[in-house]
Design a protein that fits this description.
Layout (H helix, E strand, L loop, with lengths): L1 H21 E4 L3 E7 L2 E6 L2 E4 L5 E8 L3 E11 L5 E12 L2 H6 L4 H18 L3 H6 L1 H16 L4 E12 L2 H63 L3 H15 L13 H18 L26 E2 L4 E2 L15
Antiparallel strand pairs: 1-4, 2-3, 2-5, 6-7, 7-8, 9-10
Helix pairs in contact: 3-5, 7-8
Length: about 325
């Protein structure tokens, strides 16, 4: 009985192992390659699958989700013989598990090497400035070449991104100096424009102030003129105001010569007549009072003053009014 029991136990174990090998559960977004006696038979999809135990074997399990693979920095020479280091990131997805298993030994390594060679070809035809400012062009060129080459491997490249483009240290220093100079230039231009605008605004303000001041003075003169005409000022008042203005002519230490207008005598006569009329109450007017001789500052360089032969007194030198040419504004 014991040998029979042992055989039964062995058969049960073999049956259990066969059952386990017969039922294959494939996770979602995955696939499995089945080979029978070393030859491709079929591709198992997600879910519960039945295979022939000890005859069918699972060759490879492939993830069908989109994968992200970063590649280390690669030195690339530009057309102007400068070496730049470029980091790339590839987004790819397996669309045909059978081709990805049998068409290429390692599709990840193949994609990396193809990316490096394609990147060197693209960057080799561009200078440094174009390389730094043409990321989209480089990405589009890489994606086109990778799509064409990886299509037969059952791989679809969705995106290619350049993580960083690092020029040499000396070039970076030169670029920083150039950028700093450009910023200083823009700052100087803005400062000059601000100063110019400030001067323009200040000049406009001064011009407006002058216009307003002139308008105010004109209005004041117009008001005084209208007040005089409305008050019907007589000769007496005008003569009195005339005399009050005369002392202002002699003010100032620098005045060596001042001119007395000919109307001063008439004004004094009118004022004297008015004064006598007010005191005498209508009596005969007295002899006209001669105004006191005005103190005249004499310029030593002007020469001797003319002498009045009748009164035996020196008369003040009266300079004729000078006419100056009118300057057009």
């Amino acid at each position: 009985m014991e040998p029979v029991l042992i055989v039964l136990i062995v058969l049960v174990v073999v049956a259990f192992i066969a059952l386990i090998k017969t039922i294959q559960v494939i996770p979602q977004a995955s696939a499995a390659i089945v080979e029978r006696f070393g030859r491709y038979t079929r591709t198992l999809s997600a879910g519960l699958n039945i295979v022939v135990p000890f005859i069918d074997t699972i060759r490879n399990r492939i993830d069908l989700r989109e994968q992200v693979v970063p590649f280390p920095p690669q030195p690339v020479i530009t057309s102007d013989n400068l070496v730049v280091n470029i980091d790339t990131v590839i987004y790819y997805q397996v669309t045909d598990p059978r081709a990805a298993t049998y068409e290429v030994a390692s599709y990840i390594q193949a994609i990396e090497q193809l990316t490096v060679t394609t990147l060197r070809n693209i960057i080799g035809s561009m200078d440094l400035e174009s390389t730094l400012t043409s990321r989209e062009v480089i990405n589009a060129g890489l994606r086109g070449v990778l799509d064409e080459a990886t299509g037969r491997w059952g791989i679809r490249v969705n995106r290619v991104e350049l993580k960083a483009i690092e020029p040499p240290t000396s070039i970076q220093d030169s670029m920083e100096k150039q950028m700093r100079a450009d910023r200083d230039k823009r700052a100087a231009i803005l400062t000059a424009e601000g100063a110019r605008q400030a001067q323009i605004l200040r000049a406009e303000g001064e011009a407006q102030a002058a216009v307003l001041k002139a308008d105010g003075e004109a209005a004041a003169i117009r008001t005084v003129f209208e007040a005089i005409h409305e008050g019907d000022a007589d000769q007496k008042l005008l003569a009195y105001q005339y005399l009050q203005t005369l002392p202002e002519l002699a003010k100032g230490d620098a005045n060596k010569l001042w001119i007395i207008p000919s109307e001063v005598g008439d004004a004094l006569k009118g004022l004297g007549g008015a004064f006598q009329g007010a005191v005498g109450g209508g009596a005969a007017p007295a002899a006209p009072v001669q105004p006191p001789a005005a103190r005249v500052q004499v310029d030593p360089a002007a020469g001797p003053r003319p002498v009045d032969t009748e009164n035996k007194t020196a008369r003040p030198r009266v300079e004729p009014a000078r006419e100056y040419p009118k300057i057009d504004e």
